[in-house]
Write a structure and sequence with these properties.
binds NADP nicotinamide-adenine-dinucleotide phosphate; 10 strands; globular
Length: 272
């Protein structure tokens, strides 16, 4: 597994997205993913399935220390006392004593970022998390977070796939040594039926989904694809035995559109 290093963190370049993997599906997919070689789980309190993900983790037989676990604090729980409660709830559900990475799930303009980051840094200092990071932060918010945080920010987790140009956010992150984690890396399945990605994939003996993931990896991103199908777990991880040419990369870059986002939520800040 390739590792992405960022501000002291070593993050496996492929992780398992766990949104919607609830109930027995969540524990089964988590367990299988770890047995197949995944070493990174992307969780969130908001997904309501950390108990099941924890069950899968403990059933897999893979040592806790060998798995990079990320969780996220919901945008409604960013005031310091609520944040601390949310983190403890995630740890109890996952049945772990700490996570590797704690993210602010979405920025919330109603709660001062300085207070939230103060609480995030406290969680790190007290050993509840090894690293801290942000998610869904725009360029101005990244700059603000870097200025306000006394601990290094290791990643900004954002929506990123071939239908979105995230070069400005990536440049802002790079300036501060922050890795970019790409969520919806196969555009919630849209990439799978894409003609361009399918054609390019054929030349390497790869699927359109693998081309989408590989394009992100070659841009330096960490990818966290989700699947509910055990047979697709290996497919989504098998992206390190081929390299897209510069011409293929450029052709995929052309797929980006202003309306390419697949996620939209009412509380999201305005994107650049
Ligand atoms: N920070 C945030 O605000 C945020 C927001 C959204 C997501 N996330 C994280 O990012 C993860 C990934 O994003 P996502 O789950 O929204 O979307 P995604 O991973 O881009 O796409 C998931 C969809 O693609 C399908 N799929 C996966 N692998 C496939 C393959 N090899 N062939 C064909 N179809 C395939 C899945 O269907 P099947 O189940 O049928 O395979 C599912 O419908 C989430 O699970 C979550 O952990 C974070």
């Amino acid at each position: 597994m390739q590792i992405v290093e960022a501000n002291g963190a070593k993050i496996p370049a492929v992780g398992l997205g766990t949104w919607l993997l609830n109930g027995s599906l969540g524990s089964r997919i988590t367990e299988q993913a770890l047995k197949l070689g995944y070493r990174h789980l992307d969780c969130a309190l908001m997904y309501g399935n950390e108990r099941e993900v924890g069950e899968g983790l403990h059933a897999s037989g893979v040592k806790r220390a060998d798995v990079f676990i990320t969780t996220k604090v919901p945008h409604t729980e960013l005031a310091p006392a609520a944040l601390e409660r949310a983190v403890k709830q995630s740890l109890a559900s996952l049945r772990v004593s700490n996570v590797d990475l704690l993210l602010i799930h979405w920025p919330n303009p109603q709660i001062p970022l300085a207070e939230t980051l103060g609480a995030m840094c406290k969680m790190k200092r007290e050993g509840y998390t090894r690293h801290i990071g942000i998610s869904n932060f725009t360029v101005p918010l990244i700059e603000e977070a870097v200025t306000l945080s006394s601990e290094p920010i290791v990643t900004n987790q954002i929506e990123w796939h071939p239908y979105l140009d995230e070069s400005k956010v990536q440049a802002a992150c790079r300036k501060h040594g922050i890795a970019v984690t790409a969520y919806c890396p196969i555009a919630r399945g849209r990439a799978v039926g894409d003609e361009t990605l399918t054609r390019i994939g054929r030349t390497y003996g790869k699927t359109a989904g693998q081309v989408s993931l590989r394009w992100l990896i070659q841009k330096g991103a960490i990818v966290i694809p989700r699947t509910s199908k055990i047979e697709r777990l290996t497919e989504n991880m098998s992206i390190f035995d081929f390299e897209l040419s510069a011409q293929d990369m450029a052709e995929i870059d052309m797929l980006a559109k202003p309306a390419g986002r697949v996620v939209s939520v009412a509380w999201a800040p305005k994107w650049d």
